[in-house]
Amino acid sequence: MADDEPIEDELKKKSKLPMIIGLVLMLVLGGGGFFAVYSGMLFSQEDPAEDHAAAEEDAPVEEPLPDVAFVPIEPLIINLDTKNGALKHLRFQAQIEVPAKYEADVTLILPRLVDILNGYLRAVDVYELEDPTALIRIRSQMLRRMKIAAGEERVRDVLIMEFVIN
């Protein structure tokens, strides 16, 4: 009877190794089978030659660039007054994106647009200008004001070329 106990212990210890190996193999083979079916290597209903032809047809067709023009705004230097009395300067330069057919119209009213920019940028608080996310808000405000002055269809966007606070 004492001889039977070591044999049973050895059988229990040996029986776990095949189970672990079987579990690992099951996971690896199951994952490989899933990948082969999911990627289309097995049981694919499409012909690979058709895939290649379809890929060539779906290639992006280069569309012509939109008919736009850019009206440059001369660099502006704006005095900014801080609350502590220190004087700072904002150097600002931008271009206005317009449809090409309205380029002459926007160039004609450019002094009005520069006046709008001067008035708006002088009114903005210096601490708001120094905020890293402020440029997005300021740009959208300037665009809105320009669209009101020039006409909604005449101004597409404002491209800020330089925005430096000294």
**Strand numbers in spatial order across the main sheet:** 1-2-3
Distance between the termini: 95 Å
Contiguous helical run count: 6
Largest sheet: 3 strands, antiparallel
- The helical percent reads 40-55%
- Strand residue percentage: 15-25%
Tell me the CATH superfamily of the largest domain: GTP cyclohydrolase I, C-terminal domain/NADPH-dependent 7-cyano-7-deazaguanine reductase, N-terminal domain
Describe the 3D structure:
With 166 residues, the chain is of the alpha+beta class. It folds into two domains: 4-57; 68-165, 2-Layer Sandwich (GTP Cyclohydrolase I, domain 2), CATH 3.30.1130.10. Helices cover 52% and strands 22% of the residues. The chain contains six helices and three strands, in the order ααββααααβ. Strands 1-2-3 form a three-stranded antiparallel beta sheet. The longest helix has 36 residues, at 4-39. It starts with a helix and ends with a strand. The model has no long low-confidence stretch (mean pLDDT 85).
Descriptive labels:
single chain; about 170 residues; alpha+beta; GTP Cyclohydrolase I, domain 2
Fold topology:
Blueprint: H1 4-39, H2 48-57, E1 68-81, E2 87-99, H3 103-108, H4 110-123, H5 126-129, H6 134-150, E3 157-165
Antiparallel strand pairs: 1-2, 2-3
